[in-house]
Structures are given as C-alpha cells and as structure tokens.
Design goal:
By secondary structure, the chain is an alpha/beta fold. It has 11 helices and 6 strands. The chain has a single domain, classed as Lambda Exonuclease, Chain A, CATH 3.90.320. Strands 1, 2, 3, 4, 5 and 6 form a 6-stranded mixed sheet that branches.
Amino acid sequence: MNALADAPPAQAGAPSARIEELKKTVSASRLNCWQTCRLKFYFRYVLRIKRPKSAALFIGSMVHLVLQQWNLARWRNIPFKLDSMRGTFDTKWTEEQKEQPIDWEGEEPAEKQSSWGLLDMYFKQTPIPADEKPEAVEVPVEADLHRHGLPVLVGVMDLVRKGGKVVDFKTTGQTPNPERTSHLNETQLSCYGVLYREATAARESGFELHSLVKLKAPKLVVTALDPMTKQQETRLFRIMDSYLNGLDRADWIPSPSPMSCACCEYFNECRRWG
C-alpha cells in the first residue's frame, strides 16, 4: 500500500496542529534534517512516516548505548570491566531487535562482531582516563530562546567531561577529515553550546568528536574543537529563524544530492511527490 495513501499531498500543506507543535521546540536533529532536505523533514516530522531502522543506524545506536553505560559507570565510580561491557552489548543487541527486527541479509554474526570490535577498540584507545568522573551523561537540557524570537531548544548531550568539555560519539565508515567534520557538525555542536551555557551559566571549554571508524582494522579519531563563537551562535539562530519561516510557508522543497538520496528512507515517496 502507498505509504502516503492516507496523507494529504505535500504541496497542499501539512496538518496545521502538527506544524504548530513543531514551532514550539527545535532540536539539533530536526535542524540537521531541515538543512539536508525539507521534503525529508516533511515526511519524517510532519507526516510521521515510520521506517524500519537500517542496519547502520542500529549499529550506531548499539555503540551509543554501550558507551552510555560506560560513562554512567564512571559517573557512579564503578570499576571498568570489559566483560561487563560485552555482556551489556550482547543483551542490548538482542533486546533492541524484539520489537523491530533488522534485515541483516544473512550478515548479522559478522556485523555483530564488527560492532563489538569498534567498542573494544574504543575502550583500549579512549583518551578519557578511567578515573575521570563525568560532569553529565545523557542529560536532557533545554534553553528558552523566546527573547531572541525563537522556540525552545531541546537536546540530550552524550557526555560532558570534567571542565565543561562536551563530547559527542560518532560511528562512521570513513576516516573523518577534521575541517569537514567541524563544518558538518557545526549546527549540532552550536546547539550543545547554547544548551550547556543555559544549563550552567558558564561557557563550555570546547568540544570533542569521538569518531569510531568502522574499517577492517577499526580506529578512533578524536576531533577537538574550540568553544562556540558568537558568529556560530548567530548562524545557528539564523538557521532556526529559517526553520520557523519555512514551517509557516509549508516549504517542503526536496534537495536532491547523490550522497543523501542514495541512503534516504523516503526515496520512493519523494519520487511520487507532486
């Protein structure tokens, strides 16, 4: 059945109540989707068309879940045990597929072993000392930006290290280029900067992107970045303003590109869009 059978045509506008809801708050993930393709944003956040999680997204979520447990253990002063982390990984791998099985195309054992290899590599190469207690782990934060004519910014930070350094974990199949990585993640990190300053009334000391690179021999690439600048904050606010204006106009315009379209879960809906 056509996934859009019960939905209004994109060009005819979207349910007004849902759009009003989206205008009240904004997050880094929504802004990134908005910047990537507004029609994809429409399918995902306005029509709420659900798609099964891909193998790559599942692996990324598994890595994040285990790293979250590792960070929480350090926060609670629980000694690190690799066997315990492996047990957590095995349990989560099974539990997370009960409601939504992944189509592994016969590659699940190899993908599972490869995914654990990423984590095993990270635990051996991480620059974070085993006895360093985090300031925060997976803490939901919000910043009311109405004084700037903007909605409430919401988000969850993976990790805040001692001294106010915000860390975000990435899984990737290619070795990241520092300059490109900084550019591609600027919106997300600027959101974290605003959220951290709102929550603590202090300036973050900087950012770290910990990229777990899924290669035959997995490796860790740490990209260290300076605190958010005033220019970056202004650019973020302009993006939010564009987001609000686009929602008002029902600006659901596709942005075709070889990279994003190749892995887009809404490719068929996009092709049928009028």
